[in-house]
Design a protein that fits this description.
Layout lengths: L1 H23 L14 H21 L6 H21 L6 H9 L13 E5 L5 E4 L5 H7 L3 E6 L5 H18 L5 E6 L10 H13 L3 H9 L3 E6 L6 H17 L5 E6 H5 L9 E6 L3 H11 L4 H9 L10 H10 L13 H16 L7 H17 L21 H27 L1 H4 L1 H15 L5 H4 L16 H14 L2 H18 L7 H32 L13 H33 L3 H38 L8 H9 L3 E4 L2 E4 L2 H12 L20
Parallel strand pairs: 3-6, 3-7, 4-5, 5-6
Antiparallel strand pairs: 1-2, 1-7, 8-9
Length: about 700
């Protein structure tokens, strides 16, 4: 019904717009001529109303349910399987090690060598044997459990095994909830109620429309499989547990499972008492010896190393480290690699072995190690588990101060806007119109400096909102009005806009044939209002896109990255409407006292300037900044350009995993190892050609 109403209003407004346009052109009796000026404000009012109606109609959510819901269900099931089963579980380090070493499973060989021990608050305890599936154990624990274990014990692998079995069931049973794997590390950024966070993650990570995602979560049709509770920042971990408990209390029939390291779970002030627990036991020496014997000659190198160094047995209790040791020592004992603890030396040997066995002509081993170390360091600093191309920001450069790319990109964009406006002014108003160019350049620079959400570091955080900034919901009219008043009264930008546009008014209104104080005032007020409107709309648009974030599953192009590509599309659609509104407003103020064609030319010039500002501030400026950052990082040899081929190479070397539109390290411990190379100062960036005496900072 609301959609029909919107369509009717659009038709009515379009009809009125045509009528008012005819009135504005003067098709009226001569005695009405003194009142023609009324048509211009009416025209602006109708144009504004039509724009608002169209924007509201475009934002109206589509229907949820029926065939569209069935299609969305199939899409989500397919993406969960592709992202986590095909790309991660089927290519886990345990599986890849067996494939690379040529280990074939025997008839009595389990898929994974570890033991699962389950317990429930009703007193049930049990051990998962070869004949019991993880899904059956999940059912026995009332479909709500926590998977615990030491680092590298196989928690995520067990969770994904459960995901595989639940996906198989959901694909045959349309009433079964949809299992969805999500990482909890991003929850702490905004600390939302879990239901709201789940809906937003479905949109951001899997590309599900927000209305459909919210409806599924509310109806209990999503089965959350939450990984990485231990990766939530420690000061927020108890809050995260409270949010999970509150969600489960509100929806007790919704199945749920999550993973956490056992030590971090024990340190929680409040545990999740309603859950059963599945603890992954460390591998015992008899289990390891049986595993080595079954592998035969494939693990001869590892057996030789263990025989030569008894202390290495302490690492074999972890399935992750056992797989890494199998790959690292595939060639048998060799010279010691790396420094530091024995664990660090093991990871260093693994990295050296994989890069030697899978060489790439474009990336030398020391380059690949440096790239992975910077990647791990930045992901750890931002508490990110999944890397996406939007994450590359100015602070990745070890030698370039963060504000420099902002300064360069904003200067270039401001000059470009000024040149275009000056050319348009020359074509529309002759030499006087050229004066609008420098003013437009200065106002663009001021607006970009005032802007809060064009920073690449903020854009990269996909929906991370500064505390207390404002409510999460965006109301276009209210927020635009708030930004308008904030710019005008609470910042130096407002005073600069007034002063700059006063200069334009003086040039246009008090020179040549356009003399008169009233006319100069009209030019000044028109330019000032248009500039303030453009800035306020630009800030509101940027904030809205910052809150929403790019959809999941977007093509992984380098520049512009997914978030900036979404901004560019939105800005290209919004600039014509802003240009029409701002130009009409400025043109009316000039045409009212003069009643001639100067108002049209001036409105066209001001509308062009406003549209260019919106395009520059929302999309083009950050895109130029991103290009400069990628170029600088490539010159420093901190990251390659393009980056995606290297990430795919790291996947082949079993350092990373491809997950949808992002990448994850094969394990958190490997991320920590590479990140430590930067923080410990073991790697230094290559000195750029133009840097001679500047001291380079590590990491």
């Amino acid at each position: 019904m609301r959609r029909v109403t919107m369509v009717v209003l659009t038709v009515v407004c379009a009809t009125l717009l045509g009528v008012v346009t005819n009135v504005a052109t003067g098709v009226l009796p001569d005695r009405w001529s003194p009142y023609l000026w009324i048509a211009w404000p009416l025209l602006a009012l109708v144009a504004t109303a039509l724009t608002v109606v169209e924007v509201r109609r475009a934002r109206e959510p589509g229907p949820v349910g029926g065939a569209s819901a069935a299609r969305a269900r199939r899409v989500l099931l397919d993406r969960v399987r592709r992202y986590w089963i095909t790309s991660v579980l089927d290519r886990s380090l345990h599986v890849e090690a067996r494939l690379q070493l040529g280990i074939t499973a025997s008839a009595d060989d389990r898929r994974y060598p570890w033991t699962l021990r389950a317990s429930h608050r009703d007193g049930f305890t049990g051990v998962l044997d070869d004949r019991t599936s993880v899904a059956a154990l999940f059912e026995r624990l009332d479909r709500a459990m926590v998977i615990l274990g030491a680092p590298g014990a196989g928690k995520t692998t067990t969770l994904l095994e459960l995901t595989r079995e639940l996906l198989d069931g959901a694909e045959t049973d349309r009433d079964a909830p949809i299992p969805v794997v999500l990482n909890l590390s991003s929850w702490a950024t905004r600390r939302q109620p879990l239901a709201q966070w789940l809906a937003e993650q479905l949109t951001e990570r899997y590309g599900i429309p927000s209305a459909q995602a919210a409806a599924w979560v509310a109806a209990g049709e999503i089965l959350p499989l939450l990984d990485g509770l231990d990766e939530v920042v420690e000061t927020r971990r108890d809050e995260c547990v409270a949010a999970i408990a509150a969600f489960h209390a509100q929806q007790p029939l919704t199945p749920i499972a999550l993973c956490c390291r056992a030590a971090e779970y024990q340190r929680l002030r409040t545990s999740l008492s309603v859950y059963g627990t599945v603890t992954i036991e460390p591998l015992t020496r008899p289990q390891i010896e049986r595993h080595l014997d079954r592998a035969g000659p494939a693990l001869a190198g590892l057996r030789a190393v263990l025989a030569a160094d008894e202390e290495l047995w302490e690492f074999t209790g972890s399935p992750l480290l056992l797989s890494i040791m199998a790959l690292a020592y595939a060639d048998g004992p060799g010279p010691e690699t790396g420094t530091g603890s024995r664990r660090d030396r093991l990871f260093a040997r693994y990295a050296e072995t994989m890069l030697r066995h899978r060489p790439h002509p474009g990336y030398r081993p020391e380059q690949a190690t440096r790239y992975l170390s910077l990647l791990g360091d930045r992901m750890r600093a931002r508490q990110q588990s999944i890397f996406v191309l939007d994450l590359v920001a100015p602070d990745w450069s070890p030698t370039w101060p963060r504000r420099n790319p902002d300064l360069y990109s904003r200067t270039a964009i401001s000059i470009a806007v000024g040149l275009v406006v000056a050319l348009c002014g020359a074509a529309l108003a002759g030499r006087l119109g050229v004066a609008a160019g420098p003013v437009a350049a200065v106002l663009t620079a001021l607006g970009l400096a005032f802007g809060e959400y064009d920073d690449l570091t903020l854009i990269a955080r996909w929906g991370r909102r500064p505390e207390g900034r404002r409510s999460i919901r965006v109301n276009w009219l209210t927020d635009t009005a708030e930004e308008f008043l904030e710019i005008l009264f609470k910042s130096a930008v407002g005073g600069s806009v007034v002063a700059g546009t006063l200069a334009v008014g003086a040039v246009f209104g008090l020179s040549g044939g356009w003399a008169g104080l009233l006319t100069g005032l009209a030019y000044w007020i028109g330019f000032a209002l248009a500039a303030l409107l453009a800035m306020s709309v630009g800030n509101t648009v940027a904030f809205h896109l910052y809150i929403v974030g790019p959809p999941g599953g977007a093509p992984r192009r380098e520049v512009p990255s997914p978030a900036l590509r979404q901004r560019l599309r939105f800005a290209l659609r919004a600039t014509p409407a802003l240009g029409v509104i701002a130009g009409t407003l400025a043109g009316l103020l000039v045409a009212w006292p003069r009643n001639d064609a100067d108002g049209f030319r001036y409105g066209l010039l001001v509308g062009t300037a406003a549209a260019l500002y919106l395009l520059a501030s929302v999309a083009v400026g950050p895109i130029v900044e991103q290009w400069l950052v990628r170029r600088r990082l490539a010159r420093e040899d901190a990251l390659p350009r393009p980056l995606r081929p290297f990430l795919d190479y790291a996947v082949q070397c079993l350092f990373l995993r491809d997950v949808g539109d992002g990448y994850i390290f094969v394990h958190r411990e490997l991320l920590e190892f590479f990140a430590d190379q930067v923080t410990a100062g073991k790697l230094r960036p290559r000195r750029p050609p133009h840097v001679d005496s500047v001291a380079l900072k590590d990491g």
